[in-house]
Amino acid sequence: MCHYITAILPAHADLQAINAIGKSYGVSFSTLGNEHIERQLQSDQQYLWKESKFCDCGTSFGAFACYQHTHPDTSLKDIKKLRKKGWSEAKIQKWLDNKARSKQKNERSEEWSKKTYEQDARVWIQFLTDLASENICGYLGLLFHWYRGGIESERIDIVQTHETGIDQLNEDAIFHFLEDHIYQINFRNKR
């Protein structure tokens, strides 16, 4: 189906104040009831959905995984196979030209995606930095998951919770987020 981002906050956190800060970043949260997740949280935590008109596919969360694939180059072995199949030199050259154009298009697309991921990560970092400076809550946990069913009924097993300070959060850290892990961003002045 789609990726969605959810959040974990202290139960006492002022959701209205958090959403007021998030408004300028296009980030707002609402309560979400998912019993399977809530059983895995501490009793003094609340589970929230990052409101959105659309899914969170294309998020910077875990974006590094998108760059793990490689583009194999054409080898002489490939060309020999085509010749054995009876392809003419003109047809092979056309195939090579099309393959080169496709590779250039993919590289441009990947460059555009990388810029989009970087921009998204900067928005998250700025939102979290502003939230930390307001001393509204001691932390905010982020979780992203590929949903195959309903957001309130999906059975998600949280793999691990990773804690980091707001000062250690950067684009690279966000790019390396893993699905079904909670990334708890701790703020300096905990309440």
Can you describe this structure?
The protein is an alpha+beta fold. The chain has helices at residues 15-22, 35-38, 76-84, 89-134, 171-175; strands at residues 2-10, 29-31, 45-50, 139-147, 160-165, 181-186. It is elongated and about 70 Å long. The two termini are 37 Å apart. Strand 5, helix 5 (171-175) and strand 6 (181-186) form a beta-alpha-beta unit. A 6-stranded mixed sheet has the order 2-3-1-4-6-5, with helices on one face.
Order of helices and strands: EHEHEHHEEHE
Please tally the helical runs, counting DSSP H or I stretches of 4 or more residues: 5
Strand content: 15-25%
Number of strands: 6
Overall shape: elongated
Percentage of helical residues? 25-40%
> Radius of gyration, Cα only, in angstroms?
22 Å
Biggest sheet, in brief?
A: 6 strands, mixed
**Poorly predicted tracts of residues:** none
Overall SS class: alpha+beta
Mean pLDDT: 85
| Strand line-up across the major sheet | 2-3-1-4-6-5
Distance between the termini: 37 Å
